[in-house]
Amino acid sequence: MFTLEIEGTAVAVINGDEATARDLFTCDGFKEDIQAMTSEGRPLWNGTSELKIRAATEEEIEIFEDALAEDDGEGDFEDDPRHSEGTDSKDEDGDEEDEADIVFLLDIDEADALDS
Hints:
The protein is of the alpha+beta class. The protein has helices at residues 18-26, 28-36, 58-70, 111-115, and strands at 2-6, 9-14, 38-39, 42-43, 51-55, 102-104.
């Protein structure tokens, strides 16, 4: 697992290999999302700080696993057409690969809370 770190703050964990983490965390669509998303009223990314991808710590892995265990699977997932390669990739045998999961390590502000 790999973690996205911005200015010394661990922001998100992905359960893919390093190449997958780099691809997803640095694609234009994800960058736009983390500029628009806020935590405690501040954007997750200012658009210029380095996006550091590093191996996840044991604590980050535990948070990731706990979050997936609590997920009821009822969230609305939509493929992001802005991602450079999409999510429908195949492994070397031509079988569909599992999609990587991303868990944010910060409390993300709800859009409705910002509108009030």
